[in-house]
Each structure stands twice: as C-alpha cells, then as structure tokens.
Amino acid sequence: MIETAKLALGNLFGLAREELERLAEECGEPRYRGRQLFSAIYGKRERDFTRLTGLSRSLRALLSSRFYIGYPEVREKLRSRDGSIRYLLALADGESVESVFMPEERRTTLCISTQVGCAVDCRFCFTALMGLRRNIATGEILGQVYSMLADRGVEKSTRLNVVFMGMGEPLLNYAAVMKASRIMADPAGLAIPARRITVSTSGVVPRIRDLGREPARPKLAVSLNASSDEQREALMPLNRKYPLLELLSACREFPLGPRERLTFEYVLLKDINDSEADARRVASLLSGIRAKVNLIPYNSGGALPYRTPALDRVLAFQSVLAARRVPTFIRISRGQDVRAACGQLRVESG
Ligand code: SAH
Ligand code: SF4
C-alpha cells in the first residue's frame, strides 16, 4: 500500500537554497538543479513547474507530481484613500494574517506579519487581543511578500522595502524570520539588500544580541513606547523581563554601519506617554546611542481605551527631541480609513 504521506503534495515555497539542492539530489539530479529551482521560485516568481524549461521533462513531471509552489491566498483586501492596501491573507490551515502594501513614488514598502497573534501582550495593541495562536513558517512569511507582489502585478525592477511590523514579535520567531530575510536578500531571490529589510521588536534582549552577530543582518527598530520603566511596564509587560537598562545596553552594543542609526519607535498615547517631560526623558535614555526616533500617533479602535494625541502634542514632543539633536520623524500609519492598527483587521474579521 502506498503511504499517504507520499501522496500528500509538499509546498516547496520557503525552502532555502541548500534544501532545494538536497531535494534535487534526492530526485536523482545534480545539486545545481536545486539552485535553478531557487532562482525560478524566488527570482522569477514562478509557480508552475511545467514552465521551468531549463529542467528536464522528467524532473518537471516528478516535481509536479509531488510538490507545488504555494503562497497564502488573498482573503480580504482593503484599499485606502492614501494608496496603501491592507491584505488579510489565508494560510494553509485556515489561519489568517495581515500584510500591507504601501506604494510610494520611487519604492514600495511591504509590511508583513511573523506570528498569528502575539504573546507579548502590549496593552495598546490589537494583535495582543488574540494571544499567540502560532508562529508563521518561513514560506508563510515570504509568501506574504510574493502574494502581494503577484496580486499587484509588481514588476521585478521595482525597489522594495520590507518591514517586519505586522502581527507578532519577529524576534520570538527568530529562525524563520532570519531564513526568510536571507532568501529575500539573496541576489538570485528578490535581491532586496539587508539594509532595506527592517525587523521591529518590542525588546527581546537576547535575540537583539543574536541579531547583532548575524553576518548580513536586517536593520533593527526597537519599540520604546515609554520614557520610564514604570510607564513601560504598565504598557508592555515584557519590560519586567527586559527592563530599560538592559534593553538600552543591548542597543548601545548593537553594531551599526557607518551611516546607520538605530530606529526607536514610540507610539504616542494621549495623556499617557505624550508629555514634554516624557520627551525629555526619552532624549536622555537615548544619549550615547546613534538613534533616530519614529513617533507613531496611536491608531485607536473600538476595543481598546487608548486615544490619539492631538497634532500639537505630537509636534511639541518632536521639538523637544529635535532640540536635543535626536532626529525625529512623525509616522502617520497609512490606511487610516481601513483599520490601520496592526491586528485590527484580523481581530475585527473574527
Ligand atoms: N512586535 C513588534 C512588531 C510589530 S508591532 C513590535 O512590537 O515592535 C509594530 C509597531 O506598531 C510597534 O512599534 C508597536 O508599538 C506599534 N503599534 C502596535 N499597535 C499600534 C497601534 N494601535 N497604533 C500605533 N502603533 C501601534
Ligand atoms: Fe506583539 Fe508588537 Fe503588538 Fe506588542 S506591539 S503585542 S510585541 S505585535
């Protein structure tokens, strides 16, 4: 009797170059066939083995009979007036994740998720309301990028930025995130230089140190979101495990390129962490770090009590930092009219 496992088709999407080389060998082919597969899948964005005319007819037939190349499917798509598109993408087990497509004049930024839900439980975050359902596999992380590129018909010449700022804590799914980044950065893959890939973390200190040791590492953004331990603990329970002193010392030691700055994100919550005194404390916390700050006025929604500060508060906060020579930018989340907050789309669609 034939084993059912052999009948089940396997998804090749998400396999690294060495894994595809091994697969080629197992199919009785030379290793370089694996490299051909790699550039067909990730570089040419091919999804149909029969079109891989560089391979022998018999290998194409074998691959088609046992494997497929599958991306997450578009379940919902919300177009914002600002041009960005929020996707709810379905994974093979029926779970879904959010990803955002943000076209700009000279480049397109893709924001992707790394976990279904999140265990970190930040009080202001919609994703946290789901708890952690599961980690997302490498192919599902990469698949969000490819699914959006295919849906939008994005040309290969378009400059891409990728930010791991969707649902989940990327550094708590470290191996899959790094593997996906390496495939994206590979010249035979999407060829996105690592400096145009950004991992955003709530502050998982040991993994920040690991990231610093990676040979070709993505950029790091740290979600600071508070100006004191007491305040941060109330907003981000993770601060109890990794308090500011530890977090900021890992940041101080993080290796930076010659012109690189470490990004700190700061979600501004009305009357909670948005005063000028907060801004002064942030400036002193960051002293000695080559930092830049992205201020994100909070995206509010029904389920959580936090509110967005008025623009003059945001500008006042920015001037305090700027006066202390901390480059500070205001990031208005795109897709305001289509439930922009991370996790909001998924949480509200059940
Ligand atoms: N888990 C990672 C990455 C995903 S969250 C992290 O926390 O960094 C990406 C960013 O969105 C974080 O800076 C987070 O603080 C911020 N964020 C979460 N919910 C938000 C909301 N409702 N409005 C504005 N920013 C939010
Ligand atoms: Fe998780 Fe980031 Fe949301 Fe915190 S802000 S709960 S770390 S996704």
What is the CATH superfamily classification of the largest domain? Aldolase class I
DSSP strand content: 15-25%
Structural class: alpha/beta
Helix content: 25-40%
Low-confidence stretches: 1-7
Compute the gyration radius: what is it? 21 Å
Summarize the biggest pleated sheet: 10 strands, mixed
* Small-molecule binders: S-adenosyl-L-homocysteine, iron/sulfur cluster
Round the mean pLDDT to the nearest integer and report it.
93
Task: Count up the domains.
Answer: 2
Taking the alpha carbons of the first and last residues, their distance comes to 42 Å
Structure summary, number of beta strands: 14
Q: Helix tally?
A: 13
CATH-scheme architecture of the largest domain: Alpha-Beta Barrel
> What is the CATH third-level topology name of the largest domain?
TIM Barrel
CATH class of the largest domain: Alpha Beta
Shape: elongated
Order of helices and strands: HEHHHEEEEEEEHEHEHEHHHEHEHEH
Key descriptive features of the protein:
single chain; 350 residues; alpha/beta; DNA polymerase, domain 1; TIM Barrel; 2 domains; 10-stranded mixed β-sheet; two-stranded parallel ribbon; 35% helix; elongated; disordered N terminus; binds S-adenosyl-L-homocysteine; binds iron/sulfur cluster
